[in-house]
Amino acid sequence: MVGRGSRRDVGPPGEPRRIAYLYLLPAFIVYAAFLLYPLLRAVQISLYDWDGLTLGRWIGLDNYREVLTDEGLRSAFGHALVLMVFFALIPIVVGLLLASVLNRAKVRGLSFFRTVVFLPQVVAMVVVAVAWRRIYAPDGSLNSLLGAVGLDSLTRGWLGDYDFALPAVGFVGSWFEIGLVTVLLLAGMGRINGELYEAARLDGAGPVREFFAVTLPSVRGEIAVALTLTVIAALRTFDLVYVTTRGGPGNSTSVPSYEVYHRAFELGRVGSAAAIGVSLTIVIFAISFAITRIGDRGTS
Amino acid sequence: MIRSRRLLLIASVLGVTAVAACAPGSSTSPSTSAPSSASAVETDAAKMGAVTLLVWDQEVRGGQAAQMAELIKGFEAKYPNIKIERVSRSFDDLKTTLRLALSGNEPPDVVEANNGRSDMGEFVKAGQLRPLDAYSTAYGWEARYPKSVRQYSSYSPDGKTFGEGNLYGLPQVGETVGIFYNKKKLAAAGLQAPTTWSELQSSLATLKGKGEVPLMLGNLEKWPAIHVFGTVQGRTTPPETIKSLAFGRSGATWKSPENLKAAQTLVEWVDKGYFNKGVNGQDYDPAWQGFTKGTGVYLIAGTWLQADLEKAMGADVGFMLPPGSAAGDKPVATGGTGLPFAVTSKSKHPDAAAAYINFITSEDAMAVLAKTGNLPIADTSAQVVTGTLQKEVFSSFGKIVEQDGLVPYLDYATPTMYDTIGAALQDLLAKKATPDQFLDRLEKDYAAFVSAQG
Amino acid sequence: MRVSRAERSANYVILFAFALFALIPILTILQAALGPGDSAGTGETASFAGLHLGNFTEAWQVGHFGTYMRMSFMVSASVVVVSVGLSILSGFAFGTMRFRGSTALFYLFLLGIMMPSEAIVVPLYFDLRTLGLTDTFWAVALPQVAQSVAFGTFWMRAYFRSSSRSLIEAARLDGASNRRILWQVLVPLARPAIVTLIVLVFMWTWNEFLIPLVMVTDESLRTAPLGLAFFQGQYTQGFTLLAAGAVIVATPVVALYLFLQRHFIAGMLEGSVRE
Questions:
Q1: Are B301 and B442 members of one domain?
Q2: Residue B283 is part of which domain span?
Q3: Within an 8 Å CB–CB cutoff, is residue B20 touching chain A?
Q4: Residues of B in contact with C38 (CB under 8 A)
Q5: pTM above the 0.90 mark?
């Protein structure tokens, strides 16, 4: 190993540099103070029963036990899983289709379509929620549309329906994420070597076979990135639930992030809220890790 | 290198134990040094110097917004040295953010807080609200606000007893939940305004038969159904029981045949299709707006909608108290006061805050309230009322107060009852829970709280 | 690669369908915002060729959007300036220098990208409150700087790593200091990546909801998305003004996006799948 960092900060390339730490420091200070330290504090607070005002009471892992056993919290995490299907799986399936269409064909106005399809990502979630809350209203456009095509029997107050509120919220997520995923996958597909397609065609493969044999394996990396981003988005949905249902009807759209806010700032159960937040973080890390592992395994 | 690593290990272990050893929060709760005698408070607002008061309220609906704006203007005109900075928010948003605001370092001076245990009870317990008894004596509020009204804003200093103790707030308006009805549609169906409960029930069937939506309800926000259920419960359960249940006092139970009948009636109404479709998915405000546009014949709601409904429907809308089993029966209805205005204990200008509250509840203020379509809680009979709906609302309220027929809102009962009953009612209306399960859930919350109170 | 005409038309149909799908909710809001007053409360607002632009002024006043928009601009601008600056520095370090612990430190930064604000907002609020720092501009801005720095470091590192090695080596051999190399050689070349980062950070900060909700109770410090959420509860008389408010809140970011979308999308695609 070379000496412990050269004393001059300008040395021959390849030398380890002390000066790097100086460049890192400002970013690291803000990051550590406002993200890392609070995370540690969250872990600490989660071990107490605290109302935010008076002295906290040590209860060890009881809050975490509650996360695993309390029916309300378990269903909240369950709902988050359902949302993952809407935020991640559906957009990826649809995105693959859309991206391959955009990629294959010499479609004119490609950038226009790309711009439009990506637009939902740019709009603030609160605005999105306000718009969709209106669409889902009993006298909103969705019910009008159903009525117009003669499906009157299906109309209902979507956000107040026990069976459909969660899928309705989830569908907003699908709408929101499809653009991002499509654009991401399209970029990946654009990098695929044309010769691979030639070879496949020479073997007599039609568009479907081409897709599965050439396109799909080549965008494994992009799919991993898309999955990670959308899964995290699904697990973090606070704005959407706050503006549309606040967890209702009953508790059918409760999600962990809303529970964190509700417990910490409305019910005065700060320790429990911190535990839920930490659990959420662990779940996100675990899933991201798993996705990267699977993604890596494919590209060997 | 090995040494530095060991040092690191020791340091982190020490750090962890240090961190684990200090519990969050402090053991001293903020003390409220409230003046104990009337002479210690300043009541002449003009002498208070330049002050800015931060006020949070939820006066957002038509009549409410109008009265608040007018009163603030009047106050600032009378006392140019005091400036009012007002934040107005919906009931739900205020509920969500008030706790955060009160626990912060610079809370508002005056807040309009829901007087139930889940809000005001908790705030009093945490020492965040200032007792107003000294001001009450100094300003003479006791003369104009009878004890039966003041009880709704009174708590013991430890927050345990609701309905007696110190006065923590003063409301502007009275409220009662009753039945708004579309006069034209009733007449068109050949019906008269029902005077007994059975008449009401049969009119529901008739209206349904004629293709109308008998009952309009928007329950997306979860709390509107509490009023509807309270109305039905008032027909079956004795008022004293309801009061015990709603104030969180011991000695009552949710699991009684009367309460069961109330829950069953509600489910019956759902089964017979008396409600608009998808009540749990319908917003509260669009629901009454739909009522004004002709959907729904009855709207079980509170007198706070008077101004908006009168503006939209004029003489076509009427108001009545929920009818009893016989025409002359003593009326029972959910209601009481509107949300009271309270002073925070961290406020640096409690005297000015109290002067503001005094102004917006004064006799002149009551007249402004009546003029803008609200229902003043004090000096009600002295008001000049115009408009058919307003007359009906005022006379109904006067009648029920006179006969002491008001029972409190059911969500007042425990710190978690607001959440519990809101969700439970949504489940009941959606047939996700049977009436028995519904009552079990309420009983669990209520009984746990009452036994913990000791 | 010849594509049959049938396939090409089918492709257009699919594309149009999805474009429509993406646009419809946005158009619904726009249409409501430009429509006539629909409630018992508001009278007719000023209209021009059937488009009721007066709705926007009314929503602006009733919903106090002036304060909120100004606050949002200030917060977003500050967060962008600070975090992009810091990210360039740290990305440069990670991307071009070797030093002990660089991998571990980098993974530490990566954590920040995945960490949900829900986990940290609770302890952060209570700690800042003890310090008396809640209800301040920096209470809203700094947590978002921290989040943006995590992503920004990743982003700039990816870019700098792929910058021409030979360029950097040549500059070093010429005796240029690190500072010269960064600001005068690399950054000008990195403009597309930096522009993309600016746009992304601006968008995420502008649209952030939870952190401002918790950190401030003072009205004058609230941001636009919060204003809209509260306006929804406060404005009980219909949908028109709410829709107008929604348009007001969404417009700055959408405008930025449309103006810079070439940079935006291109940059995002190029940088996203490195590593």
A1: yes
A2: 175-336+406-453
A3: yes
A4: none
A5: no
Candidates A22, A25, A35, partner chain C, best to mutate (most C CBs within 10 A)? A35
Residue B49 burial by Cβ neighbours in a 10 Å radius (0-12, 13-18, 19+): exposed
Q: Domain residue spans in chain A?
A: 76-298
Nearest to A54 among B25, B280, B290 (CB): B25
Whether residue B82 is found in the same domain as residue B164: yes
Interface predicted TM-score (ipTM): 0.84
Instruction: Give the residue from chain B lying closest to C122, CA to CA.
Output: B100
Q: Does residue B290 belong to the interface with chain A, where contact is any CB pair within 8 Å?
A: yes
The answer to whether residue B363 is domain-embedded is yes
Note whether B133 and B282 are same-domain residues: no
Write out the residue range of the structural domain in which residue C241 sits. Answer: 66-272
A265 touching chain C per CB within 8 A: yes
Interface test with C, best of A8, A9, A21, A30 (most C CBs within 10 A): A30
Which residue from A53, A58, A160 is facing B281, i.e. has the nearest CB? A160
Contact between residue B304 and residue B61 where contact means Cβ atoms under 8 Å apart: yes
What is the rounded (10 degree) CA torsion for A216, A217, A219, A224?
100
Do C50 and C75 lie in one domain? The reply is no
B chain contacts of residue A266, beta-carbon cutoff 8 Å: 95-96, 99
- Cα–Cα separations (whole angstroms), residue B195 to B203, B321, C68: 11, 9, 51
What angle do the packed helices C102-114 and A270-298 form, to 10 degrees? Answer: 120
On whether residue B400 sits in a domain, the answer given is no
Residue B83's φ and ψ, nearest 5 degrees, are -110, 140
Shortest distance between the Cα of B385 and any Cα of chain A, in A, equals 36
Residue among C40, C229, C236 minimizing CB distance to B312: C40
Token representation of residue B301: 């709601």
**Alpha helix locations (H) across C208-239?**
210-215, 224-234
Q: How does pLDDT run along chain A (300 residues), one tens digit per residue?
A: 344 444 444 445 555 567 888 888 899 999 999 999 999 999 999 999 888 777 788 888 989 999 999 888 999 999 999 999 999 999 999 999 888 877 776 667 777 888 888 899 889 999 999 999 889 888 788 888 888 888 877 777 788 788 889 999 999 999 999 988 988 888 888 777 778 878 887 887 777 787 887 888 888 888 888 898 899 889 888 999 988 888 877 788 999 999 999 888 888 889 999 999 999 999 998 988 888 887 666 544
Q: What is the DSSP secondary-structure string of C158-213?
A: HHHHHS-HHHHHHHHHTT--HHHIIIIIIHHHTHHHHHHHHHHHHHHHHH--HHHH
User: Residue B104: which of C39, C129, C219 has the nearest Cβ?
Assistant: C129
Pick the CATH number of A76-298 from 3.30.2290.10, 3.40.50.720, 1.10.443.10, 1.10.3720.10: 1.10.3720.10
Which chains contact C through at least 3 pairs of Cβ atoms less than 8 Å apart? A, B
β B340-343/B51-57 pair status: unpaired
CA of C123, closest CA in chain B: separation in Å? 10
Could you tell me which of A165, A257, A249, A260 has the C-alpha nearest to residue B423?
Answer: A249
Residue B73, domain CATH: 3.40.190.10
Contact B427, A250 (CB under 8 A): yes
How far apart CA B449 and CA B413 sit, in angstroms, is 9
Is B224 in the A-facing interface, judged by CB distances under 8 Å?
A: no
Cβ neighbours of C254 in A, within 8 Å = 119, 122-123
| B323 and B139 Cβ atoms separated by less than 8 Å | no
Same structural domain, C84 and C31: no
In this complex, the chains that touch A, judged by 3 or more CB pairs closer than 8 A, are B, C
Considering only the beta carbons, identify the residue of A132, A225, A232 that sits closest to C114. A232
Alpha carbon of C273: minimum distance to chain B alpha carbons (Å):
36
